[in-house]
Amino acid sequence: DAGVTQSPTHLIKTRGQHVTLRCSPISGHKSVSWYQQVLGQGPQFIFQYYEKEERGRGNFPDRFSARQFPNYSSELNVNALLLGDSALYLCASSEGYPDTQYFGPGTRLTVL
Amino acid sequence: AQSVTQPDIHITVSEGASLELRCNYSYGATPYLFWYVQSPGQGLQLLLKYFSGDTLVQGIKGFEAEFKRSQSSFNLRKPSVHWSDAAEYFCAVATTDSWGKFQFGAGTQVVVTP
């Protein structure tokens, strides 16, 4: 079975631009979470979606938004990019509550 | 406040030697505990998890971890390290009322020398 997939792999943007990151969960998994990992730190929770509803939000500004589609894939959107948004963005999926989260390879976002 | 602490930022170990990585947590509710490994530029791979039951859990790649409730710890061990174990290791904690919102430690970078 395919694992969690994310696209794109790498992305370079300039300050003020908008970016959309995509995630496809493992087949059968209904929960998707997003994390931001800044270089040298552990992942920080951004959002969780379960059955297409937002179930949790981390301490991130409103510039960050997300949604989950009927097929359980998900998008993370970031508006008005700042240099500090440069990070590895990780998507994780799980079957339900409580369950292990399985992580994708991440999207490396660089903001210039 | 809830927190996860990995006291060692960096550990250097000789190939064939034993390895122990420390993880301490501060949570009011019963925690679910995980160890993940991350190679450079890669996502996180699950090594092992503890939900309940036997406090000594076995994982992949020869790793094991022991949950000690009295010490609020979940330390990761491997009896004999291989060069391929060089990576960054993260401890993560979740609770039933915050499922999907894993809290991670800052990570421990493991370097393996010949």
Notable traits:
heterodimer; A: 112 residues; mainly beta; 7-stranded mixed beta sheet; 4-stranded antiparallel beta sheet; 51% strand; B: 114 residues; 6-stranded mixed beta sheet; 0% helix
Describe this structure in words.
The complex is a heterodimer of chains A (112) and B (114). By secondary structure, chain A is mainly beta. Chain A has strands at 5-7, 10-13, 19-24, 31-37, 44-50, 53-57, 64-68, 74-78, 87-94, 102-103, 107-111. The termini of chain A are far apart. Chain B is mostly beta strands. Helices cover 0% and strands 50% of the residues of chain B. Chain B has strands spanning 3-5, 10-14, 19-21, 24-26, 32-38, 45-50, 56-58, 64-68, 73-78, 87-94, 103-104, 108-113. Chain B starts with a strand and ends with a strand. Classes of the chains: A mainly beta (112), B mainly beta (114). Chain A binds chain B through residues 4, 31, 33, 35, 41-45, 48, 50, 55-56, 58, 90, 92, 94, 97-106, 108, and chain B through 4, 32, 34, 36, 41-46, 49, 51, 90, 94, 96, 98-107.
